């Protein structure tokens, strides 16, 4: 076999590899004209390479991120260095369908990209090769892991019965607000309350009925508070809420609205009518407080005064 035949055979071998490798390959010249468009790109775009030969990439694909991609291409031409992009930076370059859009977990293919220079016989960069990798499985696995971690974090902060913050998460949020007060000077009020005679509810109607009462009270709390307020289940039938930006008068108004809403609520459980009330204590944050636990203790003392005063009432710490 002469040299020419060997060169032709080698060229066919290389072309076979280029067109059949399971990676997108696009070769561009300095004018961003398409010189090679392999079978991977053909299969996913549905565009025959013969129709793209010598066509400008950005004119043929106007939905490409032109400014961003052109800057990367021009940098490779200028510096004779590789450039990279991951799906975390940009989910895709070409908007291709995934391999299994119906049974798969994503309709769109996530992509990683590498651009590397191709030098000519003169040693100058005459072309660049854009390599496109299907990163869909890896991307979706990572997203699923992140989602699972977020859900675990959420479950670690949320009380399962009520959907409110659990005690630890609520105290952390309350501590943050306490630390913020000296800088902001913004008044906030802390309201603690519990369900009156809750043990009697459990003893009379059963613990499942008691759980239903707790859920109803939690729902009323969610409806009464503002989105910015920090509400949590402190333990058992005891609840707490930090009213951000509300002074003691605002705290008392909130407490009375909630108390009246609970008093007028009737729970039907297994054809049994259950009525109940709550008692509340309110404390406004101020400069005299040495710690967030002292703030909490003030609200608790006011709550105790409500209990001692006959229950089903709101008391402001003085």
Automatic annotation (TrEMBL):
One GO cellular component, as annotated: plasma membrane
Pfam families according to UniProt: GGDEF (PF00990)
Span of domain GGDEF: 186-318
The enzyme's E.C. designation: 2.7.7.65
GO molecular function: diguanylate cyclase activity
Reactions performed catalytically: 2 GTP = 3',3'-c-di-GMP + 2 diphosphate
An individual GO BP term: negative regulation of bacterial-type flagellum-dependent cell motility
InterPro entries the record matches: Diguanylate_Cyclase, GGDEF_dom, Nucleotide_cyclase, PAS-like_dom_sf, Rev_trsase/Diguanyl_cyclase
Broadest EC class assigned to this enzyme: transferase
Requisite cofactors: Mg(2+)
Name listed for the protein in its UniProt record: diguanylate cyclase
